[in-house]
Amino acid sequence: MASILLWNCSSGSENESLMVAEELTMQQADGTISLRLANAGRYNDIADPSNNTAEWNVVFSKAGGYKVWLSSATRDTVNLNYSTSVKVNLSDSQLAAIPECDKIIRNSADVNYPYFRADSFMGSIYISEPGEYNIQVISDKVMPKELETQTESMSENSRLLAVFISPETR
Q1: Can you give the pTM of this predicted structure?
Q2: Is 128 exposed, middle or buried (0-12, 13-18, 19+ CB in 10 A)?
């Protein structure tokens, strides 16, 4: 009985480590932060994919207001076909929206034909002081790492690529 309990405790901590991104993401000199899904810690819920989660640990070196954008690979530049809201959590803030095609990036190195890159404005956040923060994205479009390279077999029209955070300018 004790060995089963110890095994359960140790396997639980292994699952937790899968959720944490391997590296800290640093803010660039221009104030932007690029959070690629490929670098995220991920949790995938097979029973309810709307709970699929990606997480990053980010260091903000500057306080202030920031715009949050989602970047998606899409075949349809009119409708991204997100069926549920995407949630972006940062400290005490949560942004939730169904992504729309606010910007289409043609010939992006992030995607291959027949996909285009579409950026969607999620909203704004305020960082009151510099430091390390955890950013979490919850969406059924957070795919397991093993499916990331299988774009040919994807039956869906869009998938999540990244989160971009940029300083607000006035």
Answers
A1: 0.81
A2: exposed
